[in-house]
Amino acid sequence: MTTTSRQMILGMHLGTGYGSQANAWRAPGVDPAAYTDIEAQVRYARAAERGTIDFLFLPDNLAITPSMGEGIPQATIDPVVTVAALARETSRIGFVVTGTTTFNEPYNIARQYKALDVTTHGRFGWNAVTTADPAAAANFGQTIAERPVRYGRAHEVIQAVQALWGSWGEEAWTRDKDSGRFVDLDQVRPVGLRGEYIASQGPLPIPPSEQGQPVIFSAGGGEYGLTIAGRYASGVIGAAFTIEDARAQRRAARQAAHRYGRNPDEVKFFAGLMPLIGSTVEEALARRRHLDEVSAPRRVPYLGAMLGLPLEPEQVDRPLTDAELADARPSGFDPRSQRALEVARQGWTIRDILAHGVIDYHPTPVGPPCVVADYMQEWFEAGACDGFWVSPDVNEDGIDTFVDEVVPILRERGLFHEDYQGTTLREHLGAPAQYGLDPRVWQEAS
Amino acid sequence: MTTTSRQMILGMHLGTGYGSQANAWRAPGVDPAAYTDIEAQVRYARAAERGTIDFLFLPDNLAITPSMGEGIPQATIDPVVTVAALARETSRIGFVVTGTTTFNEPYNIARQYKALDVTTHGRFGWNAVTTADPAAAANFGQTIAERPVRYGRAHEVIQAVQALWGSWGEEAWTRDKDSGRFVDLDQVRPVGLRGEYIASQGPLPIPPSEQGQPVIFSAGGGEYGLTIAGRYASGVIGAAFTIEDARAQRRAARQAAHRYGRNPDEVKFFAGLMPLIGSTVEEALARRRHLDEVSAPRRVPYLGAMLGLPLEPEQVDRPLTDAELADARPSGFDPRSQRALEVARQGWTIRDILAHGVIDYHPTPVGPPCVVADYMQEWFEAGACDGFWVSPDVNEDGIDTFVDEVVPILRERGLFHEDYQGTTLREHLGAPAQYGLDPRVWQEAS
Ligand SMILES: Cc1cc2nc3c(=O)[nH]c(=O)nc-3n(C[C@H](O)[C@H](O)[C@H](O)COP(=O)(O)O)c2cc1C
Ligand SMILES: Cc1cc2nc3c(=O)[nH]c(=O)nc-3n(C[C@H](O)[C@H](O)[C@H](O)COP(=O)(O)O)c2cc1C
Prior knowledge:
2 copies of one chain form a homodimer.
Chain A (H helix, E strand, L loop, with lengths): L8 E5 L24 H13 L4 E4 L20 H9 L6 E7 L5 H14 L4 E6 L4 H5 L8 H19 L27 E2 L4 E2 L14 E5 L2 H11 L2 E3 L5 H17 L8 E6 L2 E2 L3 H11 L4 H12 L14 H6 L9 H9 L4 H6 L10 E2 L1 H13 L5 E4 L4 H18 L12 H5 L17
Parallel strand pairs in A: 1-2, 1-12, 2-3, 3-4, 4-7, 7-8, 8-9, 9-12, 10-11
Antiparallel strand pairs in A: 5-6
Helix pairs in contact in A: 1-14, 2-3, 3-5, 5-6, 6-7, 13-14
The complex binds flavin mononucleotide (FMN) (2 copies).
One flavin mononucleotide binds next to β3 and α6 of chain A.
Protein name (chains A, B): LLM class flavin-dependent oxidoreductase
Pfam families (chains A, B): Bac_luciferase (PF00296)
Family (chains A, B): Belongs to the NtaA/SnaA/DszA monooxygenase family.
């Protein structure tokens, strides 16, 4: 393995701000008020940057999540406000911020994202989503439209945003004190886009950033999602429970890019990962058991459904019986069922089966740092992904643990860079230069 | 004069970021790239806070300003991004940010502004404007609607935003680690507003700030503007060239508040002020002459029009002749004409007449700090305003000069506080507590 071989790209998920586990806010040492506390997010961003993580990923919701009632915090208070604050406390790490194409006007998001790209010196990325949550739509007096409409608008919005980003010529900002010429307006051009869903005249009054303009990410696949990934995305935020599934998703994104005239290598596929780290497997499980002490019993019936067994909350502290294990059938409705059964067969109590993260949103390697590194290496070398977006269980110490214990192993194995190779997110991703629309994929919007 | 007597409230205008003079970006010591440089804005915010200025005022435009072509920079790159960065570098000063009701969805601005209010610990205010610029409308594929429509929407948007701000009960955020209750959703209520122009279901997932919710400002008067000022505003950003005009504007805002069932003292009227400070009048004029060295000749014909005289750029360095002074008639189309004539009669060259700021957007007291303080005292004691929004000519040194030289005189005279009296913008303004809609002025939107 040489240093010129392909290396993985890593994102760190800030999630709710507390971490990816529902009870992260209740973990020891965590300030339960961190939801509104930028200082906490600054600590997490700095920890990730210390580990030369390529980008922070911030999800977003445009509605209160019903899980708040069950004690599970909302995503970040506001990703733009958060990133604007984090920008000044970091200098190399990128920021990938989720924002909807459905309930934003292109001029407004083009402006805020470009402002963030310029003030972060080219470290900004936009994860463009279409939003399928009816509660979000209701906050805008709307209902969720069918995919053809949502994605029709998404294409127009992304194209308008990219056109606006490119409306200020690369050399337009003369700011020449002697001549008194602040801007050469001959190099600043309106975009004059008018589609079926949106219109914007432009120009945007913002010069290029060190990376030209923000990079685009997308999340989710499917026929429609792939039209976004294929045309615009430099990164795809993925979710897969098996190497096979991840490979299929990655291949689909790469094929979509090819279909739109791009080089498939321009689209990096990121697999989700929720590592549970301890110096031993038992210590890792103890960490998670402690976190879920109260909530674990409530999840037992769902685990039962995954295994085709009628399990009750009271049974949480016993292993499955031989008879139950013989009867168990992994359910087809949940892709995590097979792994749940494998863990159950190892003889763990139900609480420990749950502590293995078998009903987490992403795969959960459990144990010492090398287990996590092995897992990542296997996926990466199998072509399942170009890197990972890592969701620590509890941000307060989970980012440090990943950075201090997993990252060095990945580096030792030549799988991850020793240091940032560039200063912009585009460089971190190896994404080609782009300013304004990509002529290879641009088609007149209606 | 005792310390319990009424004191003025002061705002500092960040303007383009460079200062209020078109050539501020070309002044000595100014980095011409400050437009995209948050560090420069941080310095200015800290300087203003050192002077215990009550708030920073950030204007906004939703289009590129044509004056960019003449070397005059745009307003701030993005006020939300800027304030999010400044928030962490200051602890007491408030932020009043201009945002349009016409091209924003209430949920989006309610969220970002409340996020800023929470993360600044209650120091945020929204200057709600309706935007009359056709270029802004074109950036949203629209044209500027008539006032009844723009202001009809403005009322709905402001009410929806205030309702969303109040949707999370004051005690709702339990964040109790022991019980695992993060939020008491019984205290979080949808707002379910549906008007003629906008609708929003809510709730907003953000707890109250230290001041409950942001305060509202408005800018501009007129029949329609006063309906905004009267119902919602804690502060009015004014523009007046004479004490009489300012008193009339202030009285109109106070009467409007009274009409909507509020105490007139709840609406503070801020007069605009563009001080030109030097240790002598001559030194102050020299500062301005230097700043406008190249551009002054271009303004001569306009000065001529104000005085009813055919003046040419080449004449910039001579005073008006006796014959011209005898012929001069202040023009009725520009309220600044009378003062321009008064200055001309003092025998200054045309360049020095212009250097007196006679065609600036706000009155320009010229000379040593006590001249500025005298001016402010006279207006304040005449009931022309409750305070000022001060526009330094060049932010880089103008804020320091005002803070170090004018503020101490105002304090000595008991006209301005010795230190911040509270921690929130609401406290700085003496605005009453408000959370959610004001029941005194709330009427069902349609
Ligand atoms: C891994 C992953 C992360 C996502 N993150 C977000 C998010 O933070 N906010 C959001 O509104 N949607 C998010 N989405 C939702 C997708 O953008 C998309 O709306 C969703 O998958 C529904 O698909 P559809 O729009 O094709 O119906 C995410 C999807 C995936 C797969
Ligand atoms: C002192 C002052 C400052 C203003 N600042 C802004 C601003 O920063 N951005 C903006 O869009 N409008 C601003 N306005 C414009 C007003 O909100 C209003 O749109 C304008 O006066 C036109 O009036 P109309 O909307 O009643 O036609 C300002 C007005 C005044 C008087």
